[in-house]
Amino acid sequence: MTAARGAWDQQTPAMRGALLMIASTVAFATMHAVVRMVSAELPALQIAFLRNVFGFCFLLPMLVSARFAQLRTKRFPMHALRGAINAVAMLMFFSAIAMTPLAKVTALSFTAPIFAAALGVVLLGETFRIHRFAAIFAGFGGMLIVLRPGFAVIETGAILAVVSAALWALAMIVIKLLSRTESSLTIVAWASIFLAVFSAGPAIWVWQWPTLPAWGGLVFIGIIGSIAQLAISQSFREADASAVLPFDFLKLIWTALLGAWLFGEIPDRYTLIGAGVIFGASLFIAGRERNTARIQAKL
Question: Which residues face 23 on adjacent strands?
Answer without folding.
Answer: none
